[in-house]
User: Fold these one by one.
Assistant:
Number 1:
Amino acid sequence: MEFPSKLIENAVEELAKLPGVGKKTALRLALHLLKNESEDTFLLAESLVKMRTEVKHCKQCHNISDTEVCGICSNPLRDRSLLCVVSDIRDVIAIENTAQYKGLYHVLGGVISPLEGVGPSDLHIDSLLERLPNSEVREVLMAISPTMEGDTTAFYLTRKLRDHQNIKITTIARGVPVGGELEYTDEITLGRSIVERTTYGRA
């Protein structure tokens, strides 16, 4: 692809690094930004820089946040007896969009995947186990995508949680298709899975 300007070429190269954005789409975006009011482009650039430099991770649940403790963890109206374990921040957003869940979260930061070199020590599992003693948590809901890696992660966590006899372990109902990702599940199906959660089998 030939470019009339090296600056446009550089912009297209960077935009094309975004997921789902090819060279042609990147070129359209670059030309749109060039055609737009310069203030709009500067606002976009400033918001991206601020997002990258100022967004934090909640020190309690590892969700993204503008403050050290996210709005969900600090909300006194949330049910502190219920803790939902998810693999990714996008899963928190998906579940919150159902408006069916009122508890707290714990974001693992991924799933156990030996093929990709991801083990338990690479996830926020230790901080999860540290949260439970002396807490109000009475139920841990495993809301992890039902893939092979997701099921492996849930099984590992269930074994780790055995010592906490006063905590019930549940999983989202299998209304979510096996092999599917939570972020792509429609809100009605995901909401029903939260409401109709079932007890997680103990090994």
Note: Helices lie at 6-15, 23-35, 38-54, 89-96, 125-131, 148-160, 187-195.
Number 2:
Amino acid sequence: MPIVQHTTDPLATVYKSQAQPSSDGIGKIYMGREISQVMGHQGAGWLERPSRSISEQPQQFIPALNLEPTDTVADIGAGTGFISFRLAPLLPEGKVLAVDVQPEMLEILESVQQQRQIANIQGILGTEKNPNLAHESVDLALMVDAYHEFAYPREMMEAVTQALKPGGRVVLVEYKAENPLIFIKPHHKMSVRQVRKEMQAVGLKWKGNQKVLPQQHVLTFQKSL
């Protein structure tokens, strides 16, 4: 399939496009990877499916984040708040910045937040290129099943890196592309090798893969001090 330069993007040398997108991709290529389609707010029910806690086991990886009570955590691609609401009780003196590009998702999240009377979650409407986080304000940027959908991963991660405090961390939870027996659409999975390559491109240092989940990687990177 022919591949041509993606000339409409400001970083034209970074992105390429292919004439025919894959069934679950958008036809835009970044560092050899076709970016996946985005789950729209119409799929909010899927994010809150009862089986998600069983299949994704957030109770396993969240403790492995080693959060401090005072931390500011950006849940980027927060959706309906499935992860944000599990982080909030661990941050009694800190907060969760729940970032999403779809206002409809944030409306759902904020409605549930009001019902539960949770004060330390702040919804933030981001863009495809910027999470709209303050400079050096975040201890941890967490992306759960989200990064592979970013339409502008280079710009987004550069902005995330700027938002991290010195020594701040990025953690990506992604379904394992290395395992063909994990029945997730191919472009909604990522390999360790690919993620490391993309994070290195924005200056983040590899810290390791916490192997606490059966189907997903928990990949940690750090900003320089």
Note: The first strand starts at residue 3 and ends at 5.
Number 3:
Amino acid sequence: MRVIARRRVFAAGGIAALVSAPSLVRKIAEQLAPLPDFEPMGDPPGFRRVSGGSISAGGNPFVGLDGASDTSPNLAIADVREDICGSLFGNEPLAGDTVPVASFSDFYCPYCRIQTKELADLEDRMGGGIKMVWHELPLLGDASILAAKAALAAKRQGAYVRFQERLISTPFRATPGYLEALSESIDVSYLQLMADMDSEEVLQEIRTSTALAEIFRSISTPALVIGKTVIQGQTSTTTLEDIVDPEHTEGWSRVC
């Protein structure tokens, strides 16, 4: 595993040279921040929690989803509890030095857009040190629900990341017309996308992510589960690195 090393000590003379560079000063402040304090959760057993920063809160992600009224949230939660790790991280085997990271986000949560980009960059930079798993948690209304369903439909054409990158970089709200144009721009069949958006499989993915959010008491976005560490709120890249390191050395898989 290529762990990102961090230096918490630097020459005092270098501080003065950085006073006129606010972004660098902020980055140094993050590096000097104390390591996060972990709080055992108890339920689910084996997991722990640490606080993050800014959040976007919303309502019930099932509102407006076709077929949602016929769905029992309690049944979804019971099913997910039987295989929490599989529901969080998927069932593909991971290399022994890879830490899985489950991200819960809403395309129209401004903090999620920033964190999604940072997480994608971190995954690339760590070269296999972490494995991102993206969960849709549409809490901010009809446009969020439409975008979540479209993203999961695009995944069925192998285009989730392309769709995600395009949507988080635009100020447009998801509408059928916009989704059609976006589909054409990333070589996705719009007709297939529309069919998959209303499929039971896509709805079930959102049910699973919503059940996980309830189990981990993540009632807003963004939220993360890094190995066995749960974070509510936007988190700096430096803190993410601080959490990935012990998750690797302590053996995150013990809870799975």
Note: Residues 1-20, 22-33, 66-72 have pLDDT under 50 and may be disordered.
